[in-house]
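User: Structure please.
Assistant: Input sequence and predicted structure:
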Amino acid sequence: MVYCNNCRVEGAFTAKRDQPCERPALPRESDDVQLISARVSQRAKHGIAGSNLNAIAYAPGKGYVGGDDFVFEFAYRRGNEAGKVFVHFDVTVE
């Protein structure tokens, strides 16, 4: 994961129709980064996304199958440096 202030990072995952899913939020334990906050800065068009800083979650709209995307803005601290990174997720709902 790249942590540079105001950078945009790409991510992707697959979700099942009518099934909410979650995955660990950033960073991995090995990263020397502390997440401060997370917010959806671009909403999903065909579902709903959210985060509690430990995980991100996505739930597709009822009966929806196809592509979706959303963007999270994560505020972070690494040592004395503070910043934010934008993570764009492409989702395929099967």
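The CA atoms of residues 24 and 41 lie 18 Å apart.
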